[in-house]
Amino acid sequence: MYKLIKTNGSARLGSFTTAHGEVQTPGFMNVATCGAIKGALSALDLKELNCQVQLCNTYHLHLRPGDENIKKLGGLHKFTRWAGPILTDSGGFQVFSLAKLRNITEEGVTFSSHIDGHRIFMGPEESMTIQSNLGSDIAMAFDECIENPAEYNYTKNSCDRTYRWLVRCKKKMAELNSREDTINKQQQLFGINQGSTYEDIRIEHMKAISELDLDGYAIGGLAVGESAEEMYRIIETVEPYAPKNKVRYLMGVGTPVNILEAVRRGVDLFDCVMPSRNARHAHLFTWSGRMNMFNEKYALDDSPVDSQCDCPLCKNFSRAYLRHLFKSGEMLAMRLAVIHNIYFYNTLMIKIREALKNDEFDKFYNEYVEIIGRRI
Question: Which letter, b or e, does each residue of 73-100 get, where b requires 16 or more Cβ atoms within 10 Å of its Cβ?
Fold first, then answer.
């Protein structure tokens, strides 16, 4: 499924194939939690913003409108009108981050809905069934995401259980993909490496899940409380033990600088709500640094947000106009800003791939790692 084209140190240029198309890596997956990008963007907008993969949320879609309803409507691709690859997370992160009351057992997790409080049970089989109903191209294994810092023995026991859950996920997916009424019979399964910030647990867990020969491997449980330096250390620790012939996905990360650093350490795929979330609060990423559009200095600035950007915002509107929209509380402000940030992230990945192709990644990294992270 994954093709490694070339390397530059640990950085990798590659591609992988899904039932709904090929994904060029390194790549960024745009987060459409409930089937839409927050900020009033649809799948039709994503097609114009160089998006390769749409990421949807298993937990939220299970609660509403319901995965069985989405299956009746033909699956997420038909429901959202996104024709390209879709990844669905397992629901595990939301179970542990949103549910105030939860009970973890070997079978799975019982928790309360954050919407109305009703009790729900989700385990490996339930998560796989929900994701099969959604018809995504990539399903994430059900795991426990631990907050950092975490106690060593708890982390070890949790990883052991997550491994047993992964075995059950693989078995259940094989069954679901063989059913006549399954929407996407080529659905792939990605396993998730956990272990908090403990190097020995991370290595042991990656070795164990690698033996299951899955379609891809994710590094989870990072960007949840630890420092950036700790995150980079864990990536460097795990990378030698991740299969070279499978795609590698760093979950929930991150800033443009985080992405550059992780690509440099061998990561292929990323996702994060940061582009859209920051945009909705008037924080925009540019090739000169990060901008706060509420800043008074933009009140009479008739220049584009970023002269090096070809997104619909930068080609058509000024900094002064965008600031006015934010100050006036206009919904258009959020939409235009989200369009810009998503375009920036996807363009960043295109430039990274071009640099890798031309054996110039180190030059690109050195030129931009300080610039794109600074405030201007």
Answer: eebbbebbebebbbbbbbbbbbbbeebe
Catalytic choice (45, 89, 137, 215): 89
Please give the Cα distance from 260 to 375 (Å, whole number).
Answer: 17
Give the strand pairing for 11-18 and 21-25: antiparallel
Q: ∠36-38-44 over CA atoms, to 5°?
A: 40
What does the pLDDT look like over 278-294, one tens digit per residue? 999 999 999 999 999 99
For 348-367, write each residue's pLDDT tens digit. 999 999 999 999 999 999 99
Entry pTM: 0.97
For this structure, is 89 an active site residue?
Answer: yes
CB 280 within 8 A of CB 41: no
139: exposed, middle or buried (Cβ count in 10 Å: 0-12, 13-18, 19+): buried
State yes or no: is 213 an active-site residue: no
Per the CB < 8 A criterion, the answer to whether 8 and 356 are in contact is: yes
Please pick, among 45, 137, 215, 271, the residue that the annotation labels catalytic.
Answer: 271
Asked whether the predicted pLDDT for residue 220 surpasses 70, the reply is: yes
CA distance 38 to 5: 34
Q: Are 12 and 25 in contact (CB under 8 A)?
A: yes
Q: What residues does 30 pair with on adjacent strands?
A: 54
